[in-house]
Amino acid sequence: MPTIIPMKRKLLMPLLAGAGLVYLFPAALKFAFRPPQRPIPQTPKDLDLPEEEVWLDGPRGKRLHAWFIRAQGAAPAVVVLHGWGGNAGLMLPFAPPLHRAGFHTLFVDARNHGLSDHDDHSSMPRFAEDLDVAVDWLLAREDVTSVGVVGHSVGAGASILAASRRGDLGAVVSLSAFAHPGELMGSSKPFNVLPGPLANLALHTTERIIGYDFDEIAPRNRIGHVQAPLLLVHGDADQIVPVSNVYDLAERMPTRRVLIVPGAGHSDLASFGSQIGEVIGFLSEHLH
Q1: b (16+ CB within 10 A) / e for 119-144
Q2: Where are the alpha helices (DSSP H) in the chain?
Q3: Within a 10 A sphere around the Cβ of 288, how many other Cβ atoms?
Q4: 229-273: per-residue pLDDT in tens?
């Protein structure tokens, strides 16, 4: 009889360890992949633009912070959405040219970014949910005639995802989008230095956390469902999301419209700004 207790302990310990892993691993991933909180470098007022700070009712009872920069009279509007660890202030270099072109603009902070409320995790689908809130807010305004979207990085992937599920967007501009989130994560640290089984476990756990299979939300697989005119912009010196991603996406576009920015890195908004005339021209062509 005394030998039964040690045997039970030997069986129980792996079960407890497994249960602990199931509980702790998702929590550890959420903690490890919290978006960095970067300073807000400027506001529209710093650029001598008419600033209206607004708070939008977001998903899960969270509030989304945004700056609305009003144009003259009734006009098209553009939502500008940052990438992972970014914020609305970092995207404001696009505000003056968009304002001069006569667009209303809404620069929004996704959850867990900028001044918006914090949530238990961030993901590309949650970026898309926040983008939907911003688009709906603009469409409800009487002074907005149509709505387009400019998204960067994860914000670009979210823009493609959102546009693939709604038919009321007039134009979408994607800056530095990746083709497949799982492939990008798997080729980046820390996943690419983990043993294969552990890396696969981490990726599958991430899918469970966000509530979607990566294949289901990958821009590569969603872009063919986008009805709005779509411009893909990418820097050829991008070391985070290689330029091969934009060619992958372009092959799956119903109509190809690609702008390659020479010498631009992933978050090199100054270099993207040098091509802002092309972006403004695209938006002006499709938003009325």
Answers
A1: bebbbbbbbbbbbbbbbebbeeeeeb
A2: 4-32, 95-100, 124-139, 154-165, 181-186, 196-210, 214-217, 219-222, 244-250, 269-273, 276-286
A3: 9
A4: 999 999 999 999 999 999 999 999 877 799 999 999 998 888 888
The sign of the CA dihedral 43, 170, 130, 152 is: negative
Domains in the chain, CATH or no CATH each: 44-180+218-286 (3.40.50.1820)
d(CA 267, CA 86) in angstroms, rounded, equals 10
- Cβ pair 147, 79 in contact under 8 A: yes
95 conformational bin, left if phi > 0, alpha if psi -120 to 50, beta if neither: alpha
Q: Look up the pTM and report it.
A: 0.89
